[in-house]
Structures are given as structure tokens and as C-alpha cells.
Specification:
The protein has 251 residues and is an alpha/beta fold. The chain has a single domain, classed as Purple Acid Phosphatase, chain A, domain 2 (4-Layer Sandwich). The chain has helices spanning 16-30, 51-60, 77-83, 125-136, 167-174; strands at 2-7, 38-42, 67-70, 99-103, 106-110, 143-146, 181-184, 191-195, 198-202, 232-237, 244-248. The site of one fe (ii) ion (FE2) has 7 residues, from loops.
């Protein structure tokens, strides 16, 4: 058995509200009778990309298991690399922050889908070439490709401006590759769909939830509902069996 705890969008900003929502998740993880094999956090770690926020991220996610992190549109490459050096192992400097990490029997290809200074996502030609090369490397075990912006149209008038763009080239790279699942965040929703023939598994937003247009409006009428329970995904893999995903919203 291999257990991935998939967290996303804590948006730490120094506030007690953001910190306490993340702590509901980390306290639950720390209480596991059998620890998760790895924790993967799919972006928007800090709310403004500040050094102090990354110091908080580093402290709050200091768990007794390996923790992998990748950037979202609220993150900033240089302070993220500097402040999260214990968590992020990426070649080069600045943007993009791509990583290939192996933890136990699994491989994680952590792709930086961000565009500096923008909220939408986009993978450059160089990034797609890098990803294609990595996915062609033989690996005997489950392979997870993780990134912040999901390759879906949410059909949400605000969120759709900020989604991953130019999906055709991304789809071509992923199609037919040995991938167990694509792990994403950004939309602050537990969302499950498919892309390029692979499962897309989105983690809930820890900081908030984005109601869909046909759901009740969030309290206050804004884009996000900060009263919804923070949650995370558990992806459980048994060799030779389909991946199982569970969602948890600890009280
Ligand atoms: Fe976010
Ligand atoms: Fe985001």
C-alpha cells in the first residue's frame, strides 16, 4: 500500500484564519495510525509569495513524512526556492520550478504551470519538452504528474479566465504515457475528471472553496467561501490495482 496525502491552496498569509485551516489538516495527518508515505501540496502555498509566508509554510508543513511542494499563481519562484529549500529540489534558478522526485516506490513529476505575474497557467515549449523527456524515462512504479492549474474548463465565469491555456500541446505530451494520475489544485474544489486519457484528481482548497455557478452563492457573495470545511485528498495505491481516492474534511 502506498498513501499520498494531497493538499492544495493553503494560501498562508500570516493570518490565524489561514493557519488554523491548514492546521486542521496537518493535525489529522499527524494522528494517522499508519503515516502517509508522502504529502504533495499542489500550489498557492503562500498568498503573496513573501519570505515571511514561506517561513510559515516551512514551519507548518514540517511533518514526519516527505513533503513535496510545487508553485501556484500566488507563489513567487525566487522566495519559494529560498524559503522552501528543505522541500523543493529543482534545477536552475527562478522560474520555472520543475522537479522530478522519487519517494519510496512512486515517482512524482512536479510541473510548474505558472506564468510569473499572471493568474492563468501555461506550459512553455521548453517545459513541455522537459516533461515529454521525463515521461519517456522508464520507471517501475506509479507515476504521478502534479501541477497547479487543472487542464479543464470549469465553466465558471471568473475561474475560467485563470485556467491552464493551450491544452492541445499538453494533451499531446501526456497521451499514451504511463501515468497513474494527474494531481492538481487551483480551483479550490474536490474535482475528478479525465484529461488525455488519465484521471485528473483535484484537491479541495484548504483556504477556501469556490462554489460553482449553479450552487448557492458563498456567504458575502464573493468568489470564495471561506466558511466551507478545509479538506484534502488521500490517494491510495495498491500495486496492480486502480488508484483509489478519498476526500477528507477534518473537523
Ligand atoms: Fe488558490
Ligand atoms: Fe491558484
Amino acid at each position: 500500500m502506498y498513501v499520498i496525502a494531497h493538499l492544495s491552496d493553503p494560501h498562508l498569509d500570516g493570518s490565524e484564519e489561514a493557519r488554523s485551516r491548514l492546521r486542521r489538516i496537518t493535525a489529522y495527518l499527524r494522528s494517522f495510525r499508519r503515516p502517509a508515505d508522502v504529502v504533495v501540496v499542489t500550489g498557492d502555498l503562500a498568498d503573496h509569495g513573501l519570505d515571511a509566508e514561506y517561513a510559515e509554510v516551512a514551519a507548518e508543513l514540517a511533518l514526519d513524512v516527505p513533503v513535496l511542494m510545487l508553485p501556484g499563481n500566488h507563489d513567487v519562484s525566487a522566495p519559494l526556492r529560498a524559503g522552501l529549500a528543505a522541500y523543493v529540489d529543482a534545477a536552475g534558478e527562478g522560474h520555472p520550478v520543475h522537479q522530478v522526485r522519487e519517494v519510496g516506490d512512486a515517482r512524482f513529476v512536479l510541473v510548474d504551470s505558472t506564468v510569473p505575474g499572471e493568474d492563468h497557467g501555461l506550459l512553455s515549449k521548453d517545459s513541455l519538452t522537459w516533461l515529454d523527456d521525463v515521461l519517456r524515462e522508464p520507471f517501475d512504479g506509479p507515476v504521478f504528474v502534479a501541477f497547479h492549474h487543472p487542464p479543464i474548463a470549469l465553466h465558471h465565469p471568473v475561474m475560467d479566465q485563470w485556467m491552464l491555456q493551450e491544452l492541445d500541446a499538453f494533451e499531446a505530451v501526456l497521451t499514451g504515457k504511463p501515468i497513474t494520475a494527474l494531481l492538481t489544485g487551483h480551483v479550490h474544489n474536490a474535482v475528478v475528471t479525465t484529461f488525455a486519457g488519465h484521471p485528473v484528481l483535484g484537491a479541495p482548497g484548504i483556504r477556501s472553496t469556490v462554489p460553482l455557478p449553479f450552487e448557492p452563492a458563498s456567504p458575502g457573495g464573493g468568489l470564495v467561501d471561506t466558511t466551507a470545511y478545509p479538506g484534502f485528498a488521500l490517494h491510495v495505491h495498491f500495486p496492480g490495482e486502480p488508484l483509489q481516492t478519498f476526500y477528507r474534511f477534518p473537523v
